[in-house]
Amino acid sequence: MFLLKSICALAVIAFVTASVLNKPKKDSRIVGGEVAAEGSAPYQVSIQLSKDHICGGALIDKRWVLTAAHCLHGFNPNSVTILVGTNDLNSGGVRYECEKFIMHSRYNQPEFANDVGLIKLKTNVQLNDKVKTIEYDYRVVPDGAVVRLTGWGRLSAGGPIPNLLQTINLTYVNHEECQKYYEPNRSVVDIGHLCTFQGRGQGACNGDSGSPLVYKNRVVALTNWGIPCAVGMPDAHCRVSYYHDWIRTTINSN
């Protein structure tokens, strides 16, 4: 679902699957990517409501999923399941029940900021060749780095959710450069955001929210929001290095 919001003339959307709820949401999916090879992202999870995909996430521990806070906001953990171990939403994999959701205490303060959350599962995930954890990175991504996004976001604005996991390589755009694209509303790009831009026709869309961006085999960002979809503006993601201590201390205390 994408959370649709109006910032002056900008329609900013969080990349969640809007088909699940009747209320507007921020949006994200992969446009211009390709089908991911089987087993190429064993850390990727699908967050589901009534077995419908709403968001992505990354398995960072046998008991913990890292995702965007807006993927959790307004949902009851008892109504949500986590699908792991498959690239196909219609086949294979194992579902796990959620014990609790933890959103950053300053989520959406200011608007669009601190969009990071954790899901604690009721039981440990059984790891195997198709299900693996991934480290979350404390290091800053270098300018111009190419990061890899995976997700089940829509293939075009208003288009269908793909059954098969999609992947795309995107280029990191530094904070100052990203803010310039959003003038005179540059404050929507917060210090906790990491931006990517690959040109028109390539980027995130509805359903990609919470999905991980990976650099050198570590999660460096989580899809947050953008102007749907792949219209020639950078997408903004949660910068994992900025929230590394929050993630670590939250897991240790829960």
What does this structure look like?
The chain is mainly beta and about 250 residues long. It has 2 domains: about 100 residues, Trypsin-like serine proteases (Thrombin, subunit H, Beta Barrel), CATH 2.40.10; about 110 residues, Thrombin, subunit H (Beta Barrel), CATH 2.40.10.10. It has a 6-stranded antiparallel β-barrel. Strands 4-5-6-9-8-7 form a 6-stranded antiparallel beta barrel. The longest helix has 9 residues. The N terminus is likely disordered.
- Report the sheet-strand fraction: 35-45%
CATH fold description of the largest domain: Thrombin, subunit H
Give the quaternary arrangement of the chains: single chain
Given the structure, what is the number of helices? Answer: 2
Secondary-structure content class: mainly beta
CATH superfamily of the largest domain: Trypsin-like serine proteases
Uncertain segments: 1-10, 18-29
Helix content: under 10%
The CATH class of the largest domain is Mainly Beta
Q: Quote the average pLDDT.
A: 90
